[in-house]
Structure formats: C-alpha cells, structure tokens
Design brief:
Layout (H helix, E strand, L loop, with lengths): L3 E7 L2 E3 L21 E3 L1 H19 L3 E10 L3 H11 L3 E6 L6 H15 L3 E5 L10 H9 L3 E11 L2 E8 L2 E8 L2 E5 L11 H7 L4 E5 H4 L27 H10 L5
Helix pairs in contact: 2-5, 3-4
Subunit structure: Heterodimer of an alpha and a beta subunit.
Cofactor: AMP; FAD
Keywords: Electron transport, Mitochondrion, Transport
Length: about 260
C-alpha cells in the first residue's frame, strides 16, 4: 500500500431513509420541505472506507488525506460536517440551488478532482433519492479512469487496488491501478457513529466553498420530470380454506395460472 494517499469522497444530502416519502402537492417531485435529511447511506459507507484506509496507513507510519465533497444547497454543509465528525480531514462544498442531475454532478466532481488530484475517488453506488446508479460511472468516463463498482471488499497495494464486487451471479475480484473510481455496496463495512468530541472538533475542520461558476461547469438539466405519482395502494389479502380454494382463485379471479 502506498504510504501517502489522497482520497476524495462524494457525500450527498438526501431525505433520511426512515422518512415515509410523499409526493408534493404539485405532483412534480418528492416533498422535501420540513423533512429530515441525512447523508446518503452508501456515501456514509464510502466515508467509512476512506477513514479505515487512513487508519490502516497510520499503523504503518503512512498517511491519507481524506477530503469529502458535496454538491448542493447550503444545508449540504450539515452532511459534510457529519463526514468530518466521522474522521474526514477537510471538506469542499460546491454550492448550487439548481437541480443537479447525475451528469452535472459528475462534471462538478471532475472539476474538483482536477483541483485536488486524489489517488482514489469513492462514491456510493447510488443515492437513495433518485436511485440512478450513474454518477460514479459517468465520472470514470469523464476522467478516463478505471472503475470498480459495487465494492464489498477493498485491498490496497502499491499504486493498485483489488476489489471484490457484487454481481448478479455472485462476486468477482478485479485489480485496477490508481488513480481509480470506487463505488460502495452495502456489505463493504458498517459506518461508525460520530462521538460528541469528534462532532465538536468537526466544527473547526476546514470547509472550503466553491460555486458552479468558479468550476466552469454547465449543470443545465438534460431531463425533464413531467409528473410524479405515488404507486397505487395495495389491496387487502383474502384468506382461503384450502389449497384447492387457492388454486381456484388464482385461476379464475387473479387469472395468473
């Protein structure tokens, strides 16, 4: 493992996973006003992985600079402070009140990568608000970097990374040179809770602010959402007296047999 690394971690502010999602009155988007937000769970796993790499290097007298970045409105700074409290060293906030679709975020991250020159960029495999699963792959394409997606295990060596990744048929192991893009899956790790002393320390850690204009990126949406609607409510189930009764209902009522 290289003795000195810079790791950039993307952290998105999303509606908290425990919140029951509702469509807004206009039917144009999910309601986000007065709703609890938190760090995207997959990005939280990515932050934890970066910190674990930093800790492993420290045991061998190495060092890792963990930089977290978030693109979005002013409240995204709360998400960055959470990552700093977990153990990240510094943060970058690309402030924008516009809708940021995956391609726009990938372009913004590319501009940040060109400034920071990290060895590894870690992203969650997807965000739980739009479930696009696109930004990491788009960023790899824009940078022309190798990528390892859906990672469930990561091992670092000198200027290389071995990743066990989850696929439809099971798992596969790949090796890629650095710099590279890594996207995290659920089984990679269990993120730590930030302790109160670390939460207090996070308030003093550096948080740089950038604008979309400063990065010179076109973030105009390429897609337009025409309508958002809740799925139909599920109908109540029916009790049957026997297997024969069940088969009869599946044939004649549900017509699935």
């Amino acid at each position: 493992m290289s003795s000195n690394l810079r790791i950039l971690v993307a952290c998105k502010r999303v509606v908290d996973y425990a919140v029951k999602i509702r469509v807004n009155a206009a039917g144009s988007a999910v309601e986000t006003a007065n709703v609890k937000h938190s760090m995207n769970p997959f990005d939280e796993i990515g932050t934890e992985q970066a910190i674990q790499i930093k800790e492993a290097l420290a045991k061998n007298k190495g060092n890792a600079d963990v930089v977290v970045v978030s693109c979005g409105p002013a409240k995204a700074q709360e998400t960055l402070r959470t990552a700093l409290a977990m153990g990240a060293d510094r943060a970058i906030h690309v402030e924008s009140d516009e809708e940021l679709q995956p391609l726009a975020v990938a372009k913004l991250l590319k501009a940040v990568v060109e400034k920071e020159k990290p060895d590894i960029v870690i992203l969650g495999k997807q965000a739980i608000d739009d479930d696009s699963n696109q930004t990491g792959q788009m960023l790899a394409g824009l940078l022309n970097w190798p990528q390892a997606t859906f990672a469930s295990k990561v091992e670092l060596a000198e200027k290389a990374m071995t990743v066990t990744r989850e696929i439809d048929g099971g798992v596969e192991t790949i090796k890629t040179p650095l710099p590279a893009i890594l996207t995290t899956d659920l089984r990679l790790n269990v993120p730590r809770y930030a302790s109160l002393p670390n939460i207090m320390k996070a308030k003093k850690k550096p948080l740089a602010k950038l604008t979309v204009a400063e990065l010179g990126v076109d973030v105009k949406p390429r897609l337009e959402t025409l309508k958002v609607a809740e799925p139909p409510k599920r109908q109540g189930g029916k009790l049957v007296e026997s297997v024969d009764d069940l088969v009869d209902k599946l044939k004649n009522e549900a017509k699935v047999l």
